[in-house]
Amino acid sequence: MKPENPILAGLALVAGLLFLSPVLYSIWMSFQTVDAYYAGQLGFTLDNYARAVGQYNFARYLLNSLIVSGLVTLIGITFATMAAYAFARYSFRGGNFLFAATVATLMIPSHISLIPNYLTLAKVGLLDSYAGLILPAISNGFAAFFLRQYIRGIPKALDEAAYMDGATSLQVLWRIIVPLSRPAIASMALYIFITEWNNYIWPLVAVGKQDLYTLQIGLARLYRINPGEGLIDWPLVMAASTITILPVLLGFLLVERHLVRGITMGAVK
Amino acid sequence: MLRKLTPYLFVAPLMIFIALFTYIPILASLNLSFREWNFLSPDMPFVGFRNYEQLLASRDLWNSLWVTTLFAVLSVPLRLGLALVIANYLVRESMHVRLLRGALFLPSVTSTVSIAVVFSWVFSTDYGMVNAILGTFGLGKVQWLQNPHLALWVLIFVNTWKQIGYDIVIYIAGLQAIPRELYDAAAVDGGKRLHMFRRITMPLVMPTTYFLLIISVIEAFQVFTIVNVMTKGGPAGATDMLVNLLYEIGFVLFDIGRGSALAVLLFILLVGLAILKSRIIGRKVHYEA
């Protein structure tokens, strides 16, 4: 790395802050009392968060989002890794066809399945349930494709050595492939988690019961029902918005490099 | 026997769920698009192409197609052009560049609903950030989201703000793959920076541009969240994009047949675009370094 030019560094900092200013300001606003906000004064409070979490049920929405995104990630990454392993290491009848069908899902607009999936889940009574939120999201063609490419880069000699020692294919997957693919699996898990966390249209149609709202639905509803009479209670809405952003924001700060690498690996390869 | 079954067992969970929630629904949509059903009535009579005829005869569909195309045609070049210029600057390695990259990338992983809500405030008429800034210059208040001529531009702005970091990151990866010697050689020949950008950078980063073009056009045709939160398709249909119309027909009016017909049309349109573009790409892009 070259030594820093302090002027450039300062400019970059200002540009970054300016770019993010709407979000930064919304976080700032979430700590204002509504009266102070509309009067253009300062008044620090945590009351907006207390109301969002208590009266407006955002603790529950946060829990729902964590459960749904967590399970989708766990199941989704397991399915994708298993399939990727088979696609990368076995040649079997219909294997190419199934792989093509997996890759083709990347081109298929997800909205075509909206109405049929709604009807299917209604028929089996899974609307308004965690299962209804989770099941349509656990098959991730992109993750399977990406992991298959990655696993193909792992030397096959490692598998063969393990088979010589009497390992089963499941052991090879678990003891050799998974540990060696850890960076790829981590980026894909992150990708699935973020996608599901931010998912909006499916929970919007699949859930009517308030106790099952995810954060996204809860926030959109809170903004739309307009809790301030006449004037929108923006500080309250922004507190809810901050709660919705925060987990991904924290995760982002922890693993930014990982995430960026994963995304570019997928795109450029 | 078991050995032969092994790969099938490994792919089975993924394939079953892909079949259940991606492929069978395509056929189901096709089937439903030829029927009349409101989700409640006990039978769903076959009505031939009537749903399609009604759709194609409705002003809503053509309005949505127009609005969505406009959104794509305006927002995609804006995104990619800006992203390439910024990436060209951010491709070097230093601490402040990394920070700026992080700041630009952040919105693309942030909740779209949150962003839509925050920008609903930013562009709100009475207490919004934009009108406050305009006010300090003595300019009057603008009704950004209530004016049919402006609302779509606001959505384009918000979408660009959210997605550009992703484009930049992808472009940076593409730029890093261009051999340095090309620039060195051009510099020896006395090449100007703008000249180098046009003659070396732009053609050599073409594969990345095509990749981003595909993704962002397909994305633009499926924009829904910011529409649903910020404008609900209004004012007067000015932001009523295709997926919003699909949502309205399918889940507000519960006209399952017509909604499915629209889904099928959207599907044909997007898969058609994808195939068309893979043809073009197959012919034009041979710049892999």
State the main characteristics.
heterodimer; A: 269 residues; mainly alpha; MetI-like fold; 72% helix; globular; B: 289 residues; 13 helices; 74% helix
How is the CATH topology of the domain at 48-108 and 150-282 in chain B named?
MetI-like fold
Order of helices and strands of chain A: HHHHHHHHHHHHHH
Average pLDDT taken over every residue of chain A: 88
- Superfamily (CATH H level) name of chain A: MetI-like
Report what the structure shows.
The complex is a heterodimer of chains A (269) and B (289). Chain A has one domain (31-268): MetI-like (MetI-like fold, Orthogonal Bundle). In chain A, 72% of the residues lie in helices and 0% in strands. Chain A has 14 helices and no strands. Chain A has helices at residues 6-29, 34-39, 47-53, 58-89, 95-104, 114-123, 130-134, 141-152, 156-164, 169-180, 182-197, 201-206, 215-225, 234-268. In chain A, helix 4 (58-89) crosses helix 8 (141-152) and helix 11 (182-197) runs antiparallel to helix 14. The two termini of chain A are 26 Å apart. Chain B has a domain at 48-108 and 150-282: Orthogonal Bundle (MetI-like fold), CATH 1.10.3720. Chain B contains 13 helices and no strands. Residues 284-289 of chain B have low confidence and may be disordered. In chain B, helix 2 (50-57) packs across helix 13 (256-284) and helix 4 packs across helix 7. The chains are: A mainly alpha (269), B mainly alpha (289). Chains A and B meet through helix 1, helix 4, helix 5, helix 6 and helix 12 of A and helix 1, helix 4, helix 5, helix 7 and helix 10 of B.
Structure at a glance:
The complex is a heterodimer of chains A (269) and B (289). By secondary structure, chain A is an all-alpha fold. Chain A has 14 helices and no strands.
List the helices and strands and how they pair.
The complex is a heterodimer of chains A (269) and B (289).
Chain A: H1 6-29, H2 34-39, H3 47-53, H4 58-89, H5 95-104, H6 114-123, H7 130-134, H8 141-152, H9 156-164, H10 169-180, H11 182-197, H12 201-206, H13 215-225, H14 234-268
Helix pairs in contact in A: 3-14, 4-8, 4-11, 5-8, 8-11, 9-10, 11-14, 13-14
Chain B: H1 2-32, H2 50-57, H3 59-90, H4 95-109, H5 112-122, H6 129-136, H7 151-176, H8 180-188, H9 193-204, H10 206-220, H11 225-230, H12 242-252, H13 256-284
Helix pairs in contact in B: 1-13, 2-13, 3-7, 3-10, 4-7, 7-10, 10-13, 12-13
Main location (chain A): membrane
Function (chain A): Part of the ABC transporter complex UgpBAEC involved in sn-glycerol-3-phosphate (G3P) import. Probably responsible for the translocation of the substrate across the membrane.
Family (chain A): Belongs to the binding-protein-dependent transport system permease family.
